[in-house]
Each structure stands twice: as structure tokens, then as C-alpha cells.
Design a protein that fits this description.
Chain A is mainly alpha-helical. Helices cover 66% and strands 4% of the residues of chain A. Chain A folds into two domains: 153 residues, no CATH class; 63 residues, no CATH class. In chain A, 42% of the residues are buried. Classes of the chains: A mainly alpha, B mainly alpha.
Chain lengths: 253, 208
């Protein structure tokens, strides 16, 4: 079933966990942009390894936990890599060396190399995200977005309030499936569940909005539970993240 | 001071005139619900790979599901920015729950949301006819298509790109535009959209 991600305090209070989420997000996006520049496999492999090592050491994320988070990557990366290899523009080039020939299928070496690079790119982008989500919780992320990145508190905390209702939505989904079963329907997974789920979600949202308005949400000066300031480690993390990206891209040259 | 959040007109409050707390929370919760759907759909999309082995580009007929909040939320709340906000929340939730696309889910979400937003903005958030909604869905798909071409399919030949684009556009009209209109209508009939411009149900027919 749907389980909301609960990040243990050991990971949140780790060295990586205490870095501002906005900085971590910024590094992840910088790496994404950098990786889009090259189809060479070496930079993404390097960055993916850095991501894993950083999560396990600086982030105190257990290896098994990290592996579970990263598992879906392999399927997606494999699918796109095969697609790219099969339909590559290089395959039409008669001068290119053929690496694989299966009946009418002709995959050339450059097509295969690009596919490997794409595979590594997707794994690297995904690994970075696992490192981020295993060392950041939703409240700290929104706090940081509002305080450090100028996101509107009404929209930021509105989204956070909605996010907190995931466990309830999961319960609702269970109830909707049980009601189908009790009516004698054989397939409890059905697209119609979506409508029921949205009805429950909107009702839940209405109650939430009413409660928030009752506390004068978004009106007047906001007070803060946690004092958030830029720290030295944020600067260190930003510089290290960019330096690692530059180092990774130099591997491709 | 703002009145009840259930007042039908736009009420004052904060830096975003026109957005009531209820608009924000409902847009966000549509995003959250679809974030969970995306998360499941990521698995379906991955598992569907062998089924589409003969024509892998046709798998993108499934793409539309990822674009629904960018159209459904604005159709209901009809506020500037609703497409972007809902799609971004949905993408963020799916990425946070664990998506194979990682942080790129966020980038995709922004682009897909902006694609739909541009069309609604072009009508100055006044037209909510099916052609407008379909146009928003298709432009959202075009944004996703361009993004994926650049990031994932840069080596793939153009004819296959065009086929992917057609599959995505059809999916956008069917799932996104059709789905959003049907969902908004059903939600209105269920009585949960009272006070929203997108859910007008004649007086007396509401189920309570």
C-alpha cells in the first residue's frame, strides 16, 4: 500500500541532513543540467557513485534503504536505453560498425554507446533524488523553500498541509476498495476508484482549508517554529556539489 | 479581513489576490492525489514495456495520465497559476515517494504545467470550452515531448519522435482533456465543488 515516506531522525540530523534542502535541490538540478550536456557514460557514473557514497556516509542512510529507493530506476533506465539503441539515428548510417544484428534489427556501436550513456544518466538523476529524499523531510523542505527561496508561504504551507493527508487518502482508497468487494465486485482495482478518491480528497481539503482559515492562515505576520539561517555547511555543500559536477564533466573530455 | 473560505467570491488574503485558502488547498490536494496516482503510473509505465515491445513509441499513449492535474485543477478552481501549481505538487509528491525520474520529475512537472498554463492564460482564464481544454492538454504534452526528446531520446530518429508526439497528443486529448471534463462533471454532481467556478450545479439537484 501507499506508505508516506518517513525519514528517520538519524538521517535528518546527519551532516547531509542538516544542509539546507534548497541547496541540495539546487545541486540536484545543477547535476541534471550538467548531465544533459553529455551522452558519455563516465560523468553520470561518477556522480551516481558520489550520490550513493554521500548518502551512506554523510547522510547516514543504510545501504539497504538506499537500494530499495533506487530499485525502480533500473527498469526505467533500461527501457529508455533499449528504445534509444533500437531507434538511434546512428543505425541508419551504413558506415557505422554494427554491434548487434538480430534479423532486421541493426544496432551500431555509436548507438549502443549513447544508450549506455543514457542509462547512466537516468540512474544518476534518480540516485541524486534518492539521496535528497532520504536526508530531507517535507516540513524542512517547505520551511527552506519559504525562508531561503522566497516561495509564497500560503502556497508552500498549503501544499504541505495537503501533503500531510496522504495516509488518510490511502485509508480512503482501502475503504473504497472494500466497498466494491462487499458489493460483490470482483475487481477492486478500477479506474472509477479515482473519482471516489478525489471526492474524499476534496472533502478532506475543504475541512483543512476551513481549519486553516479559522487560524487566520496567511493573514498578518507569520511566526516561525524553527529558526532557519544560512550556515557555513550550506556554502561548503554548494561548492562541493558544483566542484564535483565540474570534475565529472571533465571526465568526458 | 477575509470572510469564510467558503464564500463564493474571491476574498482578500495574503500576497495572491484571488486565491482563497480553499483554492490553494484544493489545488494542492488534487496535486497530491495525482502524485500518488503518478507514483503508481510510473510502475505501470515501466511494466508496460514488454507489452509495447513491437512498437515502443506507442507506449506514450499512456503519457496523458501524468498531465491530468495541469488541466483538472485549473478547470475546477479557474485561477491563474493553478495548472503550474497542481502539476508541480503532483510531480513533487511522486518524486518524493520515489520516482524513477528523480529530480527530473520536478522539471517535467514545471514544463508540463507551464504548457497548459500558457493556453489558459492566452484566453485570460475566461474560456473553459472543450477546445481550450484540449489545447491546454496538447500543449502540456508538447512541452513534455520536447523535454523528453532533449533529455532521454536525443539519439532517436525524427520519424520515431513524430510517432511518439502523435501518441502523446492523442493521449492528451483522451486522458487529459476528456478525463478532466468528465472528472470535473462527476465531482460537481457529487456536490464537492460548490463555490468553485468549475463546478456549477443547478440549485436543488445537489446530492448534499
Amino acid at each position: 500500500m501507499i506508505v508516506q515516506l518517513v525519514v528517520p531522525d538519524s538521517q535528518l540530523d546527519s551532516r547531509l541532513g542538516r544542509v539546507s534542502p534548497v541547496i541540495k535541490l539546487g545541486i540536484a538540478f545543477a547535476w541534471l543540467a550538467g548531465l544533459a550536456l553529455t551522452t558519455d557514460a563516465r560523468p553520470p557514473v561518477f556522480l551516481a557513485l558520489i550520490g550513493v557514497v554521500a548518502a551512506v556516509t554523510l547522510g547516514a542512510v543504510p545501504v539497504s534503504r538506499f537500494a530499495r529507493g533506487a530499485a525502480p530506476l533500473a527498469i526505467a533506465a533500461g527501457g529508455i536505453a533499449v528504445f534509444s539503441a533500437v531507434f538511434s539515428t546512428h543505425n541508419a548510417d551504413p558506415a557505422a560498425v554494427v554491434a548487434v544484428a538480430l534479423g532486421p534489427l541493426r544496432i551500431t556501436t555509436p548507438a549502443l554507446l549513447t544508450a549506455v550513456g543514457l542509462f547512466a544518466r537516468i540512474v544518476a538523476i534518480g540516485t541524486t533524488a534518492v539521496t535528497f529524499s532520504q536526508t530531507t523531510d517535507s516540513t524542512r523542505l517547505v520551511d527552506s523553500l519559504v525562508r531561503h527561496a522566497g516561495v509564497s508561504p500560503r502556497f508552500g504551507y498549503g501544499a504541505l498541509a495537503a501533503y500531510q493527508s496522504i495516509p488518510r487518502l490511502a485509508d480512503d482508497l482501502g475503504a473504497l476498495r472494500a466497498s466494491r468487494r462487499i458489493r460483490g465486485m470482483r475487481w477492486t482495482w478500477h479506474p472509477r476508484l479515482l473519482l471516489g478518491l478525489l471526492v474524499r480528497a476534496i472533502r478532506q481539503g475543504d475541512a483543512l482549508a476551513l481549519a486553516m482559515d479559522a487560524r487566520a492562515f496567511g493573514l498578518g505576520e507569520r511566526t516561525w517554529y524553527r529558526d532557519l539561517r544560512w550556515q557555513g555547511r550550506d556554502l561548503v555543500a554548494a561548492i562541493a556539489g558544483l566542484a564535483l559536477l565540474v570534475a565529472a564533466l571533465m571526465l568526458a573530455c | 479581513m477575509s470572510g469564510s473560505s467558503f464564500a463564493s467570491g474571491p476574498s482578500a488574503g495574503g500576497a495572491s489576490p484571488g486565491w482563497r485558502t480553499r483554492d490553494i488547498v484544493i489545488t494542492a490536494i488534487i496535486g497530491v492525489a495525482f502524485g500518488v496516482v503518478f507514483w503508481a503510473w510510473n510502475v505501470v509505465y515501466g511494466a508496460a514495456e514488454p507489452i509495447f515491445a513491437a512498437a515502443p513509441w506507442a507506449r506514450d499513449a499512456l503519457y496523458g495520465v501524468w498531465l491530468i492535474p495541469a488541466v483538472l485543477a485549473p478547470v475546477i478552481v479557474r485561477k491563474p497559476g493553478a495548472a503550474l501549481f497542481a502539476e508541480l505538487v503532483a510531480a513533487g509528491v511522486s518524486a518524493y515517494l520515489g520516482s524513477q525520474w528523480g529530480v527530473d520529475a520536478l522539471l517535467s512537472g514545471v514544463l508540463q504545467g507551464l504548457g497548459a498554463e500558457v493556453v489558459f492564460a492566452a484566453t485570460r482564464y475566461r474560456s473553459w470550452s472543450f477546445p481550450t481544454i484540449a489545447g491546454a492538454a496538447v500543449l502540456s504534452a508538447v512541452a513534455a515531448w520536447g523535454h523528453d526528446w532533449f533529455l532521454y531520446y536525443s539519439d532517436v530518429s525524427t520519424d520515431i519522435q513524430v510517432l511518439r508526439g502523435i501518441a502523446m497528443a492523442v493521449s492528451a486529448v483522451f486522458f487529459v482533456a476528456g478525463g478532466s471534463v468528465l472528472l470535473a462533471r462527476s465531482l460537481g454532481q457529487a456536490g464537492v465543488l460548490d463555490g468553485f467556478p468549475g463546478g456549477p450545479v443547478p440549485q436543488g439537484t445537489r446530492a448534499g
